[in-house]
Amino acid sequence: MPELHRMIVGPVITEKSSAAYQARKEYAFHVHAAATKPQIRAAIEALFKVTVTDVRTMVVRAKRRTGGLSVARAGRRPSWKKAIVTLKEGDAIAVFEG
Fold first, then answer.
1. Beta bridge partners of residue 85, listed in sequence order
2. pTM of the complete model beyond 0.90
C-alpha cells in the first residue's frame, strides 16, 4: 500500500464539488485505487491536520474518448477512485478555500 503522500492523488475541483464544500464542508479527492476508507481518513487527518467525520468513496467509471477528426486517436480514459470527505465543524482545508 502506498504511503500517505501517494494515497491522496489530488483534489477534485469542479463546480459541483466547490458548491458541496461551501454548503456542507465536503471535500472531494482523487485517491489511490487500492485505498480504503480508514486509510483515506488517516491520510487526510495527517496531511491537513483536520478531523474527519465521514468518508464516502466511489469508483468513477472509464469513459470513451475521441481524438478529434482522427479515428486513430480514439481510446478510453481510465477509471479512478474518488473520496468525498466530511470534516468536523470549524475545520477547513486551505487548498479548496484559496
1. 27, 55
2. no
